[in-house]
């Protein structure tokens, strides 16, 4: 083992890691990768960050195999030991995983759900499936990599050769990618093999005659095979399996369902609604049980998939009968959540234990045995699913055995419902009766619920709380006008005899939608929703305190007030008040030692001190502002405000610390006069303060350094002085080294350093200490002269300082190596870590920094906000690219610009070894200016996942590729990409030089939607001439210096339109007049291109004569065009958006468009319907309910038909593209009729109703 010191990094080179595979198939060729350094060390797993085929190749080579495939997201089950390696990066040629780079042994930020896995191969042919190597799609190893085999003419003879090559005795062929994986990212993309014609005697598949193809197979057209050592068992069977695929022990009643077909055990997918209680019932009965329920997935395992579609009635004898689509067997899918079932011999049901029909402890009765559910992770979604299964609308989770502990086994724990499941059994969980050695082992954490129909109580329990009503969704019942009759109706609905209203704001601030002010119940209504209310006005929410609240009860309640302490001892805790029969709280807004002293004396103590209790707890505020003089004998003798609590304090409650002898006091121990361990002395007992949540704001002294960092030997931050009960910031004006010495000396530090003003970013404060003047020899800052006032430019002009136990004379900046990339670049100065401001940070500077850290290169990455406690050590870094260290670059250390201080954006880098980064557009063969955006990192191409992809993002991509600008395209327009989603949720301002320089939310993301490539970003890049909003039609825009400008429609004709379309690569074009794509385009760009005069011979409109004058367009309308490669003619085609009615759509020049509603009437409709083969019709308009610019092309307007024409072209005003003044949000529509005269005579009333309906809904045109 060697340690090589390079710059500031130390790499440990270990000769060899021991490697093994766990949790995979019985052949030992697949599994979770586990490593250790020697035989005495515990085995541990490897994190899948940056885990690729290269790393898998090294692992498999180390295990004696030739090739390997990588798997992520713990496909072979989660490990249980340590995680030893993270961010492993191999070249693929190493002989041992120990020779690859990583964060270092045991250094990681991973969980076991990120455990890496591999599949290993030893032959020139492999079968790709989920977790096994003897079934799946066929691929052949070549010098270029793994090449797919397509299923053209694929036969059992071919499959037999594949299997014999892998030392199997039997083989069966499958087509349509059966039992394979959807992902093909590790296959060679430029070729495939097909039309194999093996004789059966070949030793290798590649020796069989076949043909080559210059592209991959279609995703669902790959050849598959099943290989076995024993004769194939063709019978169908079903069983439970363990996470490793082995059968479960005898007597097991629950687990993952596995089915056998053609001798191969595989999964049933539990995703969607196909796997339900009916399916589980069939499966359980087939295994010999009386019945069963669909059960939530416990482990995500990786096995071949047999069943993806089911349609069970519940009466089938075998699950095989439920697969009605024979072609769906083994159909590959992107993801498969394994189907689980819980089988029973007698019955399985859920109930609530307690005295209420809608609330209580959750109980499960299973085959006659009753148990509970643990509240571990018990959530609102879990409660909602349970209550809906019992016939309610919703539910609220209650924890900690609120309705008493149960008995019997704990049936379920760790529930994670989405909210749409039909029962809690279908929710993800930790397993049936699996809870050993957890908090669920006892009944102290039994889950409970309160179920609701149309009314519920919140912030209390089933008997009292804030009233919410189900009015399409849950809303807060307004407290205006709410009285005792209204409260009684609510309480009776909840099963109580009596009810009373509580004061508004009793439960603190309650956010939500407030509805139904001035409810007026008579008292005999069955529901609060039956009561009248003021429909003409909204609720006065009164800072979210104006809600209705109730207390429900049976019999009578004791009206006497009671008081007690709720806390860990009899002497301390929150003060609880009993009123209306309910225990509530005291608002801490004005709570002080006088109030606490009265409470403690009432409880027979000598006195007490006040504090704000923040422990979890809810309940009403029964006492608002308390104002005791201190001599009262009981709290209820003090002056007390209303029963509501200001929102600022509604998360806490009044607490007291009572003493018997002397008032508590503080002392410092083990340090200096102004530092040390803080202890409390109370009643002659000494105790300490737990440091959980302890901050410098709790350590109130006369002077402090705040909002910075503290290390063992140094502290840094802004300087503040304690004045008249609050902290006041010291102004940087006049603050010098002498002042800094006194501050640091008083805090126990011998060395000091004054930093630049505002070194920790923009801060908000009001009053300031100004004109601080110390000689440097004072013992305390109190001995210096100062005054109070307003600090100029105060947000950036506060005094900043470093206090240290070591000398701070060395100002050298040291670059700290990041643990992973991308990462904020940290630099160390004076022993304190700081950042580099992102302002002016560019690729040259990033390259210098990365090369200094011994990487091949680097790029600037999207900046991130840094902590306000972190100082800015450098800004405006300007490297030429040839420097060997960031210290050699021009930079600014002081003063820091106000832009840096206010934005608090820190420079980030992504350093690499290898090919680095590249960018391309993919997904279309038609052009090089549009497509799906793809990023290459070290040769691996991936996509950008972004559901909010904007024009600013597209602009950066397109300019990076050499275009002038770009437009964001709808997701999916160019198909789904492959490979990783490199970037997630990009937010560019449009001025960045590369897309990875934009702010973003993650690198190499693994969100489900991103892995499925549902949100792949696409762009349409534009040159100096473009159309908006479409590639083929839209407003004409020409680039002018720094933005696009619109072309004036005045005198713009078809000749000019032809030249515009020539500019864009089209053969033909026509002018569309005028400003037809919404006025919002005019708000984005000026109409400044005027007097366009083209001859028609130009190849670009830029070659035509035109003027630039923003005030010269008299019509204030912009020119638009439609471009096509079709020849100009009067040819057109008609269709309706629905079968016999709807929007009229017209295709001209091979572009589908619409007809303007202007002048469109029944005569026009009659001609259109007749041309479409109907006898008659009438007109109406349809609204285009879309936001933003018009997306469709209006072709015609004011048709002026007489109704006698045989087809549209005969009408009097067919002028293509002349659609001036066309309505932007409505389209012409028709309703066509067969046998119209007969229909109208037979049912005139029905036709009248139809016309009335259309008139109301879609503005029928008379």
UniProtKB/TrEMBL annotation:
Xref: InterPro entries: SRCR, SRCR-like_dom_sf
Occurrences of domain SRCR (ranges): 19-121, 125-228, 238-344, 350-452, 455-553, 561-659, 666-704, 703-804, 813-912, 919-1022, 1025-1124, 1125-1233
Main localization category: membrane
Taxonomy, superkingdom: Eukaryota
SUPFAM superfamilies from the UniProt entry: SRCR-like
PROSITE patterns registered for this protein in UniProt: SRCR_2
Membrane topology, from the record: Single-pass membrane protein
GO cellular component, one term: membrane
UniProt keyword list: Disulfide bond, Glycoprotein, Membrane, Repeat, Signal, Transmembrane, Transmembrane helix
Entry's localization field: Membrane
Disulfide bridge map: 90-100, 198-208, 312-322, 417-427, 491-552, 521-531, 628-638, 774-784, 850-911, 879-889, 988-998, 1094-1104, 1201-1211
Name used for this protein in its record: SRCR domain-containing protein
Organism field: Pinctada imbricata
């Amino acid at each position: 083992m060697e340690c090589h010191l390079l710059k500031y990094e130390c790499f440990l080179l270990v000769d060899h890691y021991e490697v093994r595979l766990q949790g995979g198939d019985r052949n030992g060729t697949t599994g979770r990768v586990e490593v250790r350094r020697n035989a005495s060390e515990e085995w541990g797993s490897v994190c899948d960050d940056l885990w690729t085929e290269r790393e898998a190749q090294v692992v498999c080579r180390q295990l004696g195999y030739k090739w390997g495939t990588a798997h992520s997201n713990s496909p072979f089950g989660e490990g249980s030991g340590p995680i030893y390696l993270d961010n492993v990066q191999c070249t693929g040629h190493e002989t041992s995983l120990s020779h690859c780079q990583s964060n270092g042994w045991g250094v990681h930020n991973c969980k076991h759900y990120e455990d890496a896995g591999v599949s290993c191969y030893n032959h020139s042919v492999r079968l790709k499936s989920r977790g096994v190597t003897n079934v799946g799609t066929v691929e052949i190893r070549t010098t270029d990599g793994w090449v797919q085999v397509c299923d053209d003419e694929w036969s059992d003879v071919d499959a037999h050769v594949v299997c014999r090559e892998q030392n199997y005795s039997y083989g069966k062929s499958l087509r349509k990618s059966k039992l394979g994986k959807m992902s093909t990212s590790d296959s060679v993309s430029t070729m495939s093999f097909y039309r194999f014609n093996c004789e059966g005697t070949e030793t290798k598949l590649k020796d069989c005659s076949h043909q080559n193809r210059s592209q991959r197979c279609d995703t669902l057209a790959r050849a598959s095979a099943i290989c076995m050592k024993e004769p194939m068992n063709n019978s169908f069977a079903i069983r439970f399996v363990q996470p490793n695929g082995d059968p479960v022990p005898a007597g097991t009643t629950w687990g993952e369902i596995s089915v056998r077909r053609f001798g191969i055990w595989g999964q049933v997918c539990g995703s969607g609604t196909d796997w339900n209680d009916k399916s589980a019932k069939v499966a359980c009965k087939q295994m010999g049980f009386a019945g069963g329920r669909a059960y939530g997935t416990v482990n995500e395992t990786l096995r071949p998939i047999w069943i993806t579609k089911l349609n069970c009635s519940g009466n089938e004898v075998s699950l095989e009968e439920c697969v009605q689509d024979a072609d769906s067997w083994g159909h590959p899918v992107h993801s498969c959540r394994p189907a689980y079932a819980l089988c029973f011999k007698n019955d399985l049901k859920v109930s609530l234990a307690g005295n209420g029909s809608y609330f209580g402890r959750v109980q499960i009765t299973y085959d006659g045995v009753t148990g509970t559910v643990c509240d571990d992770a018990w959530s609102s979604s879990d409660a909602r699913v349970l209550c809906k299964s019992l016939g309610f609308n919703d539910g609220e989770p209650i924890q900690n055995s609120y309705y008493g502990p149960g008995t019997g086994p704990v049936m379920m724990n760790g529930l994670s419902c989405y909210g749409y499941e039909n029962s809690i059994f279908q929710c993800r969980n930790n397993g049936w009766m699996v809870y050993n050695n957890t908090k669920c082992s006892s009944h102290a954490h039994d889950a409970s619920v309160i179920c609701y129909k149309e009314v519920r109580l919140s912030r209390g329990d089933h008997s009292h709380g804030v009233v919410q009503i189900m009015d399409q969704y849950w809303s807060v019942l307004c407290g205006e006008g709410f009285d005792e009759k209204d409260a009684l109706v609510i309480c009776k609905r909840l099963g109580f005899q009596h009810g009373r209203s509580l004061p508004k704001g009793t439960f603190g601030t309650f956010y939500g939608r407030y509805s139904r002010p001035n409810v007026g119940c008579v008292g005999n209504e069955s529901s609060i929703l039956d009561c009248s209310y003021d429909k003409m006005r909204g609720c006065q929410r009164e800072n979210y305190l104006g809600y209705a609240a109730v207390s429900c009860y049976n019999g009578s309640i004791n009206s006497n007030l009671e008081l007690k302490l709720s806390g860990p001892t009899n002497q301390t805790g929150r003060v609880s008040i009993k009123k209306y029969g309910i225990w509530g709280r005291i608002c801490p807004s004005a709570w002080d030692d006088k109030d606490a002293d009265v409470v403690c004396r009432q409880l027979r103590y000598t006195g007490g001190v006040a504090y704000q209790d923040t422990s979890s707890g809810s309940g009403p505020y029964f006492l608002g502002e308390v104002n005791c003089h201190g001599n009262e004998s009981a709290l209820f003798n003090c002056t007390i405000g209303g029963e509501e609590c200001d929102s600022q304090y509604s998360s806490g409650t009044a607490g007291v610390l009572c003493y018997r002898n002397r008032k508590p006091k503080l002392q410092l121990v083990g340090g200096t006069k102004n530092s040390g361990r803080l202890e409390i002395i109370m009643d002659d007992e000494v105790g300490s303060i737990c440091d959980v949540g302890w901050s410098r704001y709790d350590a109130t002294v006369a002077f402090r350094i705040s909002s910075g960092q503290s290390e063992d030997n140094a502290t840094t931050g802004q300087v503040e002085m304690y004045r008249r009960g609050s902290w006041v910031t010291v102004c940087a004006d006049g603050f010098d080294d002498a002042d800094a010495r006194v501050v640091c000396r008083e805090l126990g530090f011998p060395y000091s350093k004054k930093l630049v003003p505002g070194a920790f970013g923009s801060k908000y404060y009001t009053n300031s200490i100004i004109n601080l003047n110390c000689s440097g020899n004072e013992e305390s800052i109190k001995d210096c002269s100062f005054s109070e006032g307003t600090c100029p430019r105060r947000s950036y002009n506060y005094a900043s300082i470093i206090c240290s136990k070591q000398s701070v004379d060395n100002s050298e900046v040291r670059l700290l190596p990041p643990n992973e990339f991308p990462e904020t670049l940290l630099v160390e100065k004076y022993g304190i870590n700081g950042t580099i401001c992102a302002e002016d940070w560019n690729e040259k500077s990033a390259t210098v920094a990365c090369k200094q850290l011994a990487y091949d290169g680097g790029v600037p990455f999207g900046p991130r906000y840094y902590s306000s406690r972190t100082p800015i050590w450098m800004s405006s870094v300007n490297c030429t690219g040839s420097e060997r260290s960031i210290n050699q670059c021009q930079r600014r250390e002081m003063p820091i610009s106000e832009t840096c201080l206010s934005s608090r954006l820190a420079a980030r880098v992504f350093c690499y070894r290898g090919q680095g980064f590249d960018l391309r557009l993919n997904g279309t063969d038609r052009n090089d200016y549009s497509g799906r955006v793809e990023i290459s990192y070290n040769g691996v191409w991936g996509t950008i996942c972004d559901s909010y992809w904007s024009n600013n993002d597209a602009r950066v991509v397109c300019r990076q590729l050499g275009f002038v600008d770009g437009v964001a395209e709808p997701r999916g327009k160019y198909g789904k990409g492959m490979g990783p989603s490199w970037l997630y949720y990009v937010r560019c301002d449009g001025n960045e030089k590369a897309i990875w320089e934009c702010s973003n939310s993650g690198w190499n993301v693994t969100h489900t939607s991103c892995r499925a490539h549902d949100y792949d970003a696409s762009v349409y890049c534009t040159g100096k001439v473009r159309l908006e909003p479409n590639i083929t039609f839209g407003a004409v825009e020409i680039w002018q210096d720094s933005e696009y400008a619109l072309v004036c429609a005045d005198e713009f004709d078809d000749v000019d339109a032809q030249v515009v379309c020539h500019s864009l690569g089209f053969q033909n074009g026509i002018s569309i007049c005028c400003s037809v794509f919404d006025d919002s385009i005019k708000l984005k760009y000026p109409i400044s291109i005027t007097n366009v005069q083209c001859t028609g011979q130009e190849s670009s409109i830029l070659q035509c004569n035109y003027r630039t004058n923003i005030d010269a367009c008299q019509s204030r309308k912009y020119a638009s065009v439609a471009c096509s490669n079709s020849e100009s003619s009067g040819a057109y085609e008609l269709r309706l958006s629905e079968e016999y009615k709807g929007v009229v759509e017209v295709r001209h020049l091979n572009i589908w468009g619409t007809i303007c509603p202007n002048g469109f009437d029944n005569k026009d409709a009659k001609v259109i319907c007749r041309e479409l083969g109907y006898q008659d019709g009438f007109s109406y308009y349809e609204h285009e309910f879309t936001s933003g610019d018009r997306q469709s092309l209006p072709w015609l307007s004011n048709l002026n038909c007489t109704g006698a024409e045989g087809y549209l072209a005969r009408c009097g005003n067919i002028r293509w593209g002349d659609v001036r003044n066309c309505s932007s949000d409505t389209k012409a529509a028709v309703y066509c009729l067969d046998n119209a005269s007969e229909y109208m005579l037979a049912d005139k009333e029905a036709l009248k109703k139809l016309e009335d309906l259309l008139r109301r809904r879609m503005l029928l045109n008379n």
